[in-house]
Amino acid sequence: MSTIAQLFASTLEKVLLAFAHNWFYLLASIAVGVGIKLFLDQERVAAYLRRNQKGGVALATAVAVGTPLCSCGTTAVIIGMMASMMPWAPIVAFMVSSPLTSPEGLFYTAGLFGWPFSIAFFVASILLGLGGGLIAGFLDRSGWLKNQARLSSDPAVRPTVSPAHAFQAQPAQASCGCGSAHLEPISAQFDLVAQPVTVQGCCGYQPVAAVQGSCGCQSRQMPEPVQPSAKPRLTASIIAQQLYRDGSRLLLMFFGFAFLGYLINGLIPATWIPSLFGGGHAYGVPLAATLGLPFYINSEASLPLVRAMLDSGMSQGAALAFLIAGAGTSIGAIGGALTIARWRVIAIVVGTLWAGAIALGLAYDLLIVIGLV
């Protein structure tokens, strides 16, 4: 009994010590996340991407890592992108990068792992988004991604976009039956999304309205895109409620999973973690990336858990690989992706994250060995 009590006391001491070292970064991540969330939602992100389709993969990746969207928020933005007939390349880039990091995640990771690791994770998210987008663009042009959208009951609603018009899907000539041809929006021609898409019950985000098409003889003009709905005026009460909601959730996850991580480290033999994930083992990083696929929970939970494993001998490259592979393939991320895309698109996302996690994890360990990190 005394041994169990000592284990719990030692675990609690390590958790409190970790909090004492990281409280400032935790508070900073809460403040940054709430600030961005209150002034930016997925409606505006989707509308911005629709207006700037020529930015392509680079713009989609930049927006993905710069916005704190949850899984369903990411799904809503992607639906908005698909409703405007955006090609697969920027959509996949957004799907790869968005779950990995965010501005508040940059501070949270820096507190737990240090700024070099946090910046490496942030840069890795950008590189993988660009890589996934380029791969998707190549496969889209080859026709491999044809009929991979789930936005319509007709699997052939998404035509392959030619390279020359990859970011300029043009309206088609059509007739409304009154003897005068006019331009019909391509979204109406293919009947992509007839009604605004609503995502409820997650992260406090509002529904996202897809571009709606119409065909009538009284008008020859393309309909105006749906504008994002006005957000309610911010008050001190709203800000305080959001700070309390996000802060309590993050702190609960931090204390709960940091305690679990240090407790597990106290229960298993001390040599297990270094022998499986320590530096110098060729299989450590690939094993961590593979285990990240099924065992990653979310960033608030997994980051303190991995921090505890680092303290027990896990290499930083293995930790980076676990977080990259797990964040983008969590249940929320893949579940949302499966509602809008078929298996070939999902395979690109998962394959990019898994292979990229291994390559970047090994590269980070190498940089540490040669003294560049």
Describe the structure.
By secondary structure, the protein is mostly helical. The protein has one domain. The chain is 63% helix and 2% strand. It is globular.
Kindly estimate the percentage of residues that lie in beta strands according to DSSP: under 5%
Main sheet characteristics: 2 strands, antiparallel
Q: In angstroms, what separates the terminal alpha carbons?
A: 44 Å
Helix/strand order, N-terminal first: HHHHHHHEEHHHHHHHH
Form type = globular
Helix count, DSSP H or I runs of 4 or more residues: 15
Residues in helix, %:
55-70%
Q: What kind of oligomer do you see?
A: single chain
Spatial sequence of strands, sheet with the most strands: 1-2
Query: Total number of β-strand segments?
Result: 2
Mean pLDDT across every amino acid position: 74
Ranges where pLDDT stays below 50 over 5 or more residues in a row are: 152-226
The Rg value, from CA coordinates, equals 23 Å
The total number of structural domains is 1
Quickly give the structural class. Answer: mainly alpha
Quickly describe the structure.
This protein has 373 residues and is mostly helical. 63% of the residues lie in helices and 2% in strands. The chain has one domain (2-209, 237-369).
Features of this protein?
373 residues, single chain, two-stranded antiparallel sheet, mainly alpha, 2 strands
Layout of strands and helices, then pairs:
Elements: H1 2-39, H2 42-51, H3 56-66, H4 71-83, H5 88-97, H6 103-113, H7 115-141, E1 172-175, E2 181-184, H8 186-189, H9 236-267, H10 272-277, H11 284-295, H12 299-311, H13 316-328, H14 331-338, H15 343-369
Antiparallel strand pairs: 1-2
Helix pairs in contact: 1-6, 1-9, 2-4, 3-5, 3-7, 4-5, 4-14, 5-7, 5-15, 6-7, 6-12, 7-15, 9-12, 11-13, 11-15, 12-13, 13-15
